[in-house]
UniProtKB/TrEMBL annotation:
InterPro entries: Dual-sp_phosphatase_cat-dom, DUSP12, Prot-tyrosine_phosphatase-like, Tyr_Pase_AS, Tyr_Pase_dom, TYR_PHOSPHATASE_DUAL_dom. It holds the Pfam family DSPc. Residues 234-247 have a biased composition (Polar residues). It is an enzyme of class 3 (hydrolase). Signal peptide: none annotated. The keyword Hydrolase applies. Residues 113-168 form the Tyrosine specific protein phosphatases domain. It comes from Penstemon davidsonii. Residues 223-247 are annotated as: Disordered. This is protein-tyrosine-phosphatase. Keywords: Hydrolase, Protein phosphatase. Its EC number is 3.1.3.48. Belongs to the protein-tyrosine phosphatase family. Non-receptor class dual specificity subfamily. Gene3D superfamilies: Protein tyrosine phosphatase superfamily.
Amino acid sequence: MPYLVRERLFIGNIGDAAEILQNGSNEITHILSVLSSASITFFTEWRSGLSIPSKEIRKVYVGGSGSDDDSGSGSKSSLSPDKLLYSLEYAGKDLKFVRMAVPLRDMESEDLLDYLDVCLDFIENSRKEGSVLVHCFAGVSRSAAIITAYLMRSEQLSQEDAVESLRESCESVCPNDGFLEQLKMFEQMGFKVDHASPIYKRFRLKLLGDSYNRGEKIDGSKFGADPGLPAENVSPNVEASLNKESPSTPAYRCKKCRRVLALKDNVLGHVPGEGETCFGWHKRRSGNPFNRSDDDECSSIFVEPLRWMTSVEEGGLEGKLLCAHCEARLGYFNWSGIQCSCGSWITPAFQLHKSKVDISTI
Ligand SMILES: [Zn+2]
Ligand SMILES: [Zn+2]
C-alpha cells in the first residue's frame, strides 16, 4: 500500500504502482514513475502476466525545445542533449491515469538535480487535479529523494527536516548518499537548480570527473563557453553575461597577450588551507566557500574546464594549459587533482597561475 505523505501525495514501490495501474484507484489520478527505464514495458518485464495499456502524450529530451541548454553557454545541464528527460502518457486501466516517467538509476553518481524541476512541477500540478503517487522500485531512495525535494521547495524545509518529515509518513525512506548531497545543493541554491551557480558548476565538474574516471571520452561540449572568443562567435547567453555587468565584469587575461581566459563566473573558489577536496560538500566546517574568491595566499585560481582548453580534450590525465592565442604556459590540469599553494586539494583541477594572468574588467 502506498503511504500518504501529504494531502493528495503518496509514496510507494513498483508493486503499488502496478496494482493501481492494473486495477484502478478511487483516489490516485497521476503517477510519477522513477525507474531505470521510462518505458511502461518495465512493468511487464518486472512481472510477466501484467498488461498495462498506455498511450503516449509526449516525450521530452534534455536538449529539446524549451530547454535552456542548446546554446553552448557556460550554464548548462550535465545531461547529454539526446537523453530522455521524461515521457508523459495515459496509462493503466481505461487509460485513466496520467503517468510521467523519468529514467533514473538508484546510484550515488546519478544526476538527480537535473530531473527535479520537471518532477516537482508534475507533482505540483497533479495535486491540483487529483492525487499523485510517486514511486520507484523499492519506494526507498529515488521516490523519497524526489518527494524530499518537493517538500523542501513547497515548505521551505532544509534537506534534513524534509527527510525527517517524510520519515514520519513512511519509516523506510532512505535516499542514497549521492542524492542527499544533491538535495543539500538544491537547498543551497535556494530550492531551485541554477545552472549558473558555482554550486551547480562544481557538481557538473564532479560528474565530468566521474565520467573521465570511468574511461569515457571527454566531451568538450560540456565545457564552459570560451569568454575570449570575439563577440560574434559567442552564444547569446555568454554575450548577455558579458554585457550584463559591463563594464565592470572582472576577467582574467593572459599576461603576455591580454586574451581573456576566464570570467569571475568561471572561477570555482575554495576555502584556503582546507585540506579537503573542494567537493567535500558535507565536510565543510565553517562558512560558505561558494562564491568566495581565492585568498591572497593562493598562488593559483581554479576554473571550470573551458572550451579553449584543447589540450584537455586530448584525453590525458594531466597536462599543460596553454593560452589559446600566444601559447604561453598558464597552468596545468589534472583530473585526479592539484594541490593549491594554500594546501587545499582541488579535484579535478583546472589551474591558472596568478603570475601568468592579470585581473581586469571587460
Ligand atoms: Zn588555495
Ligand atoms: Zn596569451
